[in-house]
Every structure is written in C-alpha cells, then in structure tokens.
Design brief:
Length: 461
Amino acid sequence: MAKAKVWFADVRPKEGLYAGGLIHKAKDLFYEAGISDCISKGDVVAIKIHIGEWNRTRCLRPEFVAAIVEEVKEMGGQPFVCDTTTLPYHIFNSRCYSFIEYINAYRHGWTPDALGCPFIIADGLVGNDDVRVDIPEGLILKETYIARCIADADVLIPVTHFKAHPLTSIGGAIKNIGIGAQSKRGKYVTHLALWGDPSEALGYPLVDPSRCKGLDCPYHEFCEKACPEGAIKVDKDGLHFDFSKCNLCYSCQVLCLFTAGVGAIGFRAEYFPAAQIAMADAALGCLKTKKPGKVGFISYAVDIDATFCDCFPVAEMPACPDLGVFASKDIVAIDTACVDMADNSPIMPNSKAEEAGLKPGDDRFKVTSGTMWTPRIHLKAGEMIGMGTMDYELIVYEPKETPETFGKWQINKVSGVIPTVKLSEYYKTLHPLREKYTPEKPPKRVSTKEFLEVLLKKMPT
Ligand code: SF4
Ligand code: SF4
C-alpha cells in the first residue's frame, strides 16, 4: 500500500496572527486534505463527535466542529453532528440513553445554535436503532451494528479529540467510529460481550472477592442493581458472583473499577489488546456503510489527557503539549501520525509521563493510559484488515499571511459583513464618546504626562 497523506497544522500561529489560529487551520485542512471532495451537493453529512462526559473539561469544543459544519454547508452538504448512546462505563455516566445524553450535550454547548446544524443521538433513545454490517475481513469480529443515522448518511466526517484511553490506550479516529459509531449492541459486540460459550469470552469479569469491601462499600447496592442478570450479591460475607448468569454487560467491572475505585471485579490483561483489535474491526464495519471517497477524518490533538478519555468526569494532566489539527482520508494513518507526534513531543511537567520517567520517543500512552499495551496494536490491526496504513507522509501546513489569507476565516459568514466596517457606519452618527465629549471637554482622567512620569513609575517592572 502506498504511503497515506496526513496533513498537520501546528497549534501555534507560526507565520501570522490572523491566518494561524487553530480553527482557521482546521478549515484550511478541510480543503487541503480534500475532505471537501467527499461532499456532493445535497449530500447528508454525518459529523461524528464525542460530546464529553458531564463535567468533563478536556473534550472537544463546539466551535471546533461548527467550523467544519460551515465548510460542509459551503460545499452544498446537509450536515448533522452526532454521538451515540453508550454502555454503562461508570455508574453515573450521562450518555447511556439519549434523554440524559441530550441534556449533557446541551450543557456542553452541542446545540443547533452553536453548531449551525442539527445535533442528534444517532442510535435512538436506548441505542437500538442500527444497521447490521458483515466484516469477514475482521480479525476478531465478523459482524457489527452501526448507528442507523450514521449508516444512512451519504458522507461521514469523524471529528475526533485525540487523547489517551484507559481501555484502548488512545482514543483517536478509529475509536471515534470503532466504538463511537456503533449502536448499543454494536458496542456490546465490540467490547466482546458474551452470547455463547463462556470459554470464548475474553472480557469475562476477573473477580477477586477478597478485595471486595462488602457492605462497607458505599456502592454495594448499586453493584447488585446494576447487574441486569442478577449475577451479583453482596452481603455480610462479601461478594458472591454467579458466572453462569453473567452476559458480560461490563456494568460491574466499570462500577467497581471506576466508581468504587476497588477492582474486586475487573478485566483480565488479555482483554485490553483484544478490545483494541475488535475496535479496529468494528471501525471497518462503519466505513463499509459508505461509498468509496465519502469519508474524511479531522482530529484535534489538543488537551491530550494522559489517561482518561472523554467518557470520564475527571481529567489528568496532558500527556504532551497541545499539538494541533490533523486531517486525512486514511483512518489508520491519521491515528498513527497523532501517536507518533505525541510520543516524540516534550514531556509535560507534573504529568504521569514525567512521574514514570518517560522520555520523548518512548511509547507514551502504553504507560500513561495504565493499560500497559501499546496503542499500535489497533493501528496494526487496522492495517491488517485493509482499512488503512501506518506508513504515512506528514504534510506540515502553515498558511502564509497574505492579503487573501489575512482574516479570511474571521469574516462571519452568517452575517456576511465585516463588523468593523459596519460599525464605522454607526459611528458616523452614534459615536458613543462624541455624543458627550469634545476635544475641549474630554472625559476626566490623569494627563498623559502624569501617567508617564508619575503613575507608570510606581508600577512593577
Ligand atoms: S463495587 Fe466492588 S467493592 Fe463495592 S460491593 Fe461491588 S464488588 Fe464489592
Ligand atoms: S458483567 Fe455480568 S455480572 Fe457484571 S453486571 Fe454485567 S451481567 Fe452482571
């Protein structure tokens, strides 16, 4: 397979102030990387995002996505921005059915007013609205289920927040659709839920009753109630786990690990690489719902949490400094480029990477995510199933500041005016100072001479 092209624009404005902003560059990359070419007039365009958990701070921002929405419309597309319902990844999660997910989305600003297009949960109220897709190429999965609104769209543009992930080591574009575009049963499939022979269940809970705090655990009632199969009992003698009833919904593992912070019910180590590979399979299932040339990827590599993905209501220090924005038509290449650049970037002070003694060039997320598995497992898996390539050419883009690019994206296309020019018309008759003051009768203040010779000299230097 030939090298894939990945465009990158640095978060820093290196050439000019007004052409060099992150959002300006994302809009430029939309055209430079040919994402614009995916869209024909009238196409319905699904822009897949992650809305971020309730009270999560390091997550995608609506204006990052609104910028792409504007350009999709410019190409004649009909965009909608979307996320899906989730599995119960911790007991208080605000995305496991769409009613509460909409409330969370609006709190984070994912509204039609902010985005300039509809925002929808793409798999229905509880997550049952989906399309089954066969993936014979899959290394682990041979079928999956894609959220219907995403599957039915003509074009897919996953706009991804790149960061670590405590299950799959990173959350990139593959995760955005390999988990995020799956319906609820698609997510169960991808998380290797058990509907069959228990010996095939890699994700089977790893249970250590000796670690359970029993009735002293403040979550013991939730622990029982969160199990839909009645497989868990907690009494004065501790934890009783009935494996014969378990169908692997993951509620208890994530509750005990991420809410109670105990780990009496957890995962076996081999589950982590298996989940990465299954996620790559499922991502291919999502891409199969689109005709060739109808998918493009944009990834914002900023606020790159060292451990927690956007599903958590907390945030770690970043694994590395803000990098910038990436764009590509190749899902494996864009994630590989993000990981490589993050790995080679400086170590952040007061970060997990620094605590672990990591150096630039080390496999950073393998350690900081806590999984101890390299994220390159799912990148390699993606390559093996023909979804893309880890071999890429990085094209560094930095707009020159010219009369054409200067302030190009500052012009608000909705109003269609240059605000300062418009304001000057008002000033001719309504200048807020001229109404009251004249050069002979200015506003009261100290003289410039007094400011320079007295006041400024009293200020710290
Ligand atoms: S959450 Fe963990 S520690 Fe608490 S009762 Fe359940 S198994 Fe025990
Ligand atoms: S993983 Fe199994 S035991 Fe745990 S809550 Fe789900 S069904 Fe119950």
